[in-house]
């Protein structure tokens, strides 16, 4: 869960940096273009300092107009659906912007008619252009914020659902394991004490599962073998567990208790006679996992009051943990039950 939270914070910071970069690029291009196209032709070599003052104050008035609309008018009035207040405020901003340009462009004094003939088109264009761009930026930020909020809410819902699914899995798994040990004790099986020792190992597995942390494949295989060994103390069925792994077996990690429900299902609902076999194949690499299990179906399927949780639960967990990165196929015939699971974990 901590990993999901850190990822959200990182993603928000990335979006904020992207927003800042967008503004910087816009103003850099804008400044260079307007300087050479509109301001430089009015440069007076006899009064360079005065030219700089006029240029800087003109740019400052544009920034003030732009960001007043972007950061105040759009989010607080337009997006809050206050049309009268919005119309009045934006008209006021436009009027103040035009008056400021009339004052700055004409030597910080108002002239008759406010603008020279060649200035009128420029101020109309500027007021419309900066209004449109600042409004577009503000609307885009609002849309982006809404998307972030939707993503955060969805992730929180998913995390809550995962916690709920885990709360189902742990007692379900523990119940079935204790049920096996209870069966051994009823028969006064000498392996009962050994099975309790293996249960301790599996309890560590449950603890890792509930912590929300991933584990290495070697750890996962160790706990799967412990579970298989515990079940074979009670059932005589053969288990063919084939593993194909890379030389460096610690290069990948996985969410715990992904495969175990399928193995548990094979012992609980499959045929567990001495001549029967549960075939398990697990292959993993840096970014891909293949898991297959096949067992003969018992004609006397049994299902207690907690049965059915495992498979249904794992389907939903796969959807939440590996969305669009897994393929689960379950094939049930009259004689065999087969599961093929492919996961991309890169």
CATH architecture of the largest domain: 2-Layer Sandwich
Number of helices: 8
CATH topology of the largest domain: Heat Shock Protein 90
Low-pLDDT parts are 303-307
Number of domains: 2
Distance between the termini: 19 Å
Average of pLDDT: 80
What sort of overall outline do the alpha carbons produce when their principal axes are compared? Answer: rod-shaped
Q: Numbering strands along the chain, what is their spatial order in the largest sheet?
A: 2-4-5-7-6
Number of strands: 7
Helix content class: 55-70%
The gyration radius over C-alpha positions equals: 34 Å
CATH class of the largest domain: Alpha Beta
Secondary-structure class: alpha+beta
What's the SSE pattern?
A: HHHHHEHEEHEEHEE
Profile the largest sheet.
5 strands, mixed
Task: Provide the β-strand percentage band.
Answer: 5-15%
Describe it.
This protein is an alpha+beta fold. Helices cover 64% and strands 13% of the residues. It has a 5-stranded mixed β-sheet, with helices on one face.
Keywords:
single chain, 346 residues, Heat Shock Protein 90, five-stranded mixed β-sheet, 7 strands
In terms of topology, how is this protein built?
Layout: H1 2-39, H2 48-78, H3 83-105, H4 117-186, H5 192-211, E1 215-216, H6 217-232, E2 238-244, E3 253-254, H7 260-269, E4 277-284, E5 288-296, H8 309-321, E6 326-332, E7 336-344
Helix pairs in contact: 1-4, 2-3, 2-4, 3-4, 4-5, 4-8, 5-6, 6-7
């Amino acid at each position: 869960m901590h990993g999901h939270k850190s990822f959200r914070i990182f993603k928000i910071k990335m979006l904020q940096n992207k927003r800042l970069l967008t503004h910087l690029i816009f103003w850099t291009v804008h400044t260079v273009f307007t300087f050479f196209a509109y301001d430089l032709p009015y440069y007076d070599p006899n009064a360079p300092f005065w030219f700089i003052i006029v240029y800087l104050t003109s740019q400052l008035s544009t920034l003030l107009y732009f960001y007043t609309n972007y950061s105040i008018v759009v989010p607080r009035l337009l997006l809050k659906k206050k049309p009268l207040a919005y119309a009045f405020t934006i008209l006021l901003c436009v009027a103040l912007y035009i008056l400021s340009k009339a004052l700055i462009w004409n030597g910080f004094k108002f002239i008759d008619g406010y603008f020279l003939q060649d200035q009128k088109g420029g101020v109309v264009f500027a007021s419309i252009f900066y209004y449109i761009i600042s409004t577009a930026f503000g609307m885009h930020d609002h849309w982006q914020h809404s998307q972030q909020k939707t993503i955060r809410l969805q992730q929180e819902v998913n995390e809550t659902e995962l916690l709920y699914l885990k709360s189902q899995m742990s007692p379900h798994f523990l119940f079935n394991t204790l049920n096996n040990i209870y069966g051994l004790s009823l028969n006064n099986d000498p392996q009962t004490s050994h099975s309790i020792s293996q249960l301790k190992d599996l309890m560590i597995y449950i603890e890792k599962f509930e912590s929300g942390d991933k584990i290495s494949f070697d750890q996962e295989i160790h706990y799967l073998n412990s579970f298989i060994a515990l079940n074979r103390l009670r059932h005589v069925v053969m288990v063919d567990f084939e593993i194909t792994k890379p030389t460096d077996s610690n290069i990948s990690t996985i969410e715990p208790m992904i495969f175990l429900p399928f193995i548990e299902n094979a012992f609980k609902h499959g045929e567990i006679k001495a001549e029967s076999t549960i075939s398990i194949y697990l292959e993993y690499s840096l970014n891909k996992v293949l898991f297959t299990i096949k067992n003969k179906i018992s004609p006397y399927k049994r299902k207690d009051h907690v049965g059915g949780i495992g498979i249904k639960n794992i389907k939903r967990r796969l959807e939440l943990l590996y969305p669009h990165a897994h393929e689960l196929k379950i094939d049930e015939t009259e004689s065999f039950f087969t599961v093929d699971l492919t996961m991309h974990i890169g």
